[in-house]
Amino acid sequence: MACILCGNKTFNTISTKDSKNRSFLKIVLCESCGMVQQDPIPSEDAVNDYYSNEYRKDYKKTITPKIKHVFRAGNLALDRINFLKKRGIASGKLLDVGAGGGEFVYVSGKLGFDSAGIEPNIGYSEYGQKEYGIALNTGQLSDVSSQFKIITMFHVLEHIPDPVLTFERLWKLIEKDGNIFIEVPNIETSKASPQNIYFRAHIHYFSEATLVASASQYFEKIYSERDSNLRIIFRKKEVKEDLILPSSKQVFHTRNRLNSKGWIEYLLRGKGYQKFFSKIKQAFIESSLRNKDSLSLLNELIEH
Fold first, then answer.
1. Measured CA distances, 40 to 25, 157, 284 (Å)
2. C-alpha distances in Å from residue 267, one per residue of 195, 203, 274
3. In sequence order, what are the residues at sequence separation of 6 or more whose Cβ sits closer than 8 angstroms to the Cβ of residue 258?
4. pLDDT digits (tens, 9 = 90+) for 150-173
5. Helix 208-215 vs helix 248-260: angle between axes, to the nearest 10 degrees?
6. How many CB atoms lie within 10 A of CB 103?
7. With 90 as the cut, is the pLDDT of residue 49 above it?
């Protein structure tokens, strides 16, 4: 296998188990550019079929969002919109890719954007259309032909076989001086449990360096935030440029971070010991939502 980012064929195996079901799953680090990826990388057709039919059932155990999922997605939508507005992005024609049940599309549409979404799973896309009356189509990024001022992708890029090709597709869909907002899990975080990092559904595991490199031909980074997740706002380049790979120093840093991961770091530096209590609090709050409907719940979140 050749690295999806740089084409190198020298890898270091960092895991051989799927954290979800403990089945065999080979995850490798490219020794040249630091890209962490599955080996082998599945085909685009296989991935598209899985996300159209199986992913939501496998990971959410449902074919439509539960009210607790709507609550979480609504709060995340408000946080992400605030993130955009603090960086001067407060309006414009917006596309949310991998939109799930459409909560971000609905909330952003209520808060200044002209929003639409695309979601591969028909159960979730039809749910958003019915519950929120939003423009949420069933399909893949490759099905989109209109142009947008901003495109958002939240926890989507790590599921796609070819991130560089994806950035090329995004570049063609973004208006001049437009932006994309990407959020993915941060492979370098200390806040991920050592037994909950690598999944068959996640093809790529990005550091900031490899995410910026994947976009470098088509977009420039204008703002980034690193925590358990990476959040990066990119601006469209006028013309396609050469790929800029991570430096040897950045590759060395990623390798060291992967070698440093363990229970002591997670529990102390990553404050993993607090997660048990956070989950109890979350379950208590969400238990009060059972009689609410999705639309009313989102409107309440927006108003408050």
1. 9, 17, 41
2. 12, 26, 8
3. 14, 29, 36, 187, 188
4. 999 999 999 999 999 999 999 999
5. 140
6. 30
7. no
Domain 51-244+269-303, CATH class in plain words: alpha beta
In angstroms, the CA 80 to CA 96 distance is 12
- For the chain, the average pLDDT equals 94
Q: What digits encode the pLDDT tens for the residues 232-249?
A: 999 999 999 999 999 999
Looking at the DSSP bridge assignments, the partners of residue 205 are: 36
Q: Report the DSSP beta bridge partners of residue 221.
A: 234
In 133-191, alpha helices (H): 163-173
pLDDT tens, residue by residue, 286-303: 888 888 899 999 999 999
Choose among 274, 277, 262: nearest CA to 192.
262
- What is the 8-class DSSP label of residue 135? -
